Each structure stands twice: as C-alpha cells, then as structure tokens.
Amino acid sequence: MSLKKLFRTFSHMIFRTGSFRNSMIRKLAKKTENKKILELGSGKIEKGRHEYSVKKFFSSSNDFIQSDIHPEYGHKIIDVTKMKNKGEFDMILCLNVLEHVFGFEKAMENMHRALKKNGTLVFFVPGFYPLHDEPYDYWRFTEHSIRKLFQRFRNVRIRHSGIRQYPFAYYAEAVK
C-alpha cells in the first residue's frame, strides 16, 4: 500500500466522513420514493462494486440516474458546469463532487435550474480532509460559504461532522 493510500485510509478511520455521509443519506433515502434522482459523480467500480454511489440506499421505486464526468466509469456522462437540464429532477445528489469542480458557482446555478420546483439538492463536501484525486481537488468549503452557495434555495439545512471550528465534512439539504 502506498503512503498516500495509507494516509487516506487512516483519515477515513479517524474522521469517519464516509459513515457520516452514509448515515445522513440513509435517513433521506427512507423517506424518498417515486422520485427522479440524479447522482453526480457516481464514480468508478472498485472491488466489484460502485464504491462511491449511494444508489443502494434508495428504493427501486425511484428513477435513479448515476452520472460521472469520466466515460470509462460506465454512467451517463454529465459535466455539472455544462449541463442544460431544466426542471427535470426531484432530487440531485452532489456528494464529494463540488470540491473537484473548478467552476463551482456555475455548477450550483446549473443544479438549481435542473431541479423541479420543490426539488431537493443534497450536498456533501470535505472540510478538514487530506488532498485527494489531485490535481483536481480545488476547494474546501465552510458553513458560511455553503450558506452563500445556497442563497437561491430555501429550507437550507447544514450539518457537520467533527467540531464546529474543525469540521471534517459538511452535509447540506436545500429545497428549490
């Protein structure tokens, strides 16, 4: 195992960001049925399974669309900074993605437009977390920057893992 992988594994064990994300998504998934859901950044298959996708938590009653910017991952190809969808989705899952998007403001605008009225944007980003997927790990967001990003939304709910001043990650839900 490389030193980089070792530190990343160690970070997951200490910070528990994956467990935090999955517990929040499981709660959301329990009350989500018959919705059209777009998952951005569904990721690659590792160890025979979709390591990053949360599709497994959602009922099969949902129309769940997995997407990624990388065609080799086998999902619908979507670049969130260029997507043109309008009022199409009940929910967009943007989990561990926005820190890798250089044009994150355009991405937020496009996701807002792609949601139906009363649609929900679900958002997860690292806080205090090692650089990863370099050179495409551009940003770290704070609670304050997330509130600014969600200004066009209502019912914004932000949660963090870790201590407030040293957050390991942020989870947010907001309604269009």
Low-confidence stretches: none
CATH fourth-tier homologous superfamily: Vaccinia Virus protein VP39
Order the strands across the largest sheet as they lie in space: 5-4-1-6-7-9-8
The major beta sheet can be summarized as: 7 strands, mixed
The 3D shape can be described as: globular
Question: If you had to describe this structure to a student in words, what would you say it looks like?
Answer:
The protein is an alpha/beta fold. It has one domain: Rossmann fold (3-Layer(aba) Sandwich). The chain is built from four helices and nine strands. The strands form two sheets. A seven-stranded mixed beta sheet has the order 5-4-1-6-7-9-8, sandwiched between helices. Strands 2-3 form a two-stranded antiparallel sheet. β2 and β3 form a beta hairpin. It is globular, with a radius of gyration of 15 Å. The termini are far apart. The relative contact order is 0.16. The mean pLDDT is 91.
Helices and strands in order, then pairings?
Elements: H1 3-15, H2 17-30, E1 36-40, E2 45-46, E3 49-50, E4 63-68, E5 76-77, E6 89-95, H3 104-114, E7 115-126, H4 143-149, E8 154-163, E9 166-175
Parallel strand pairs: 1-4, 1-6, 4-5, 6-7
Antiparallel strand pairs: 2-3, 7-9, 8-9
Features:
single chain, Rossmann fold, two-stranded antiparallel sheet, seven-stranded mixed beta sheet, alpha/beta, 26% helix, 9 strands, 176 residues
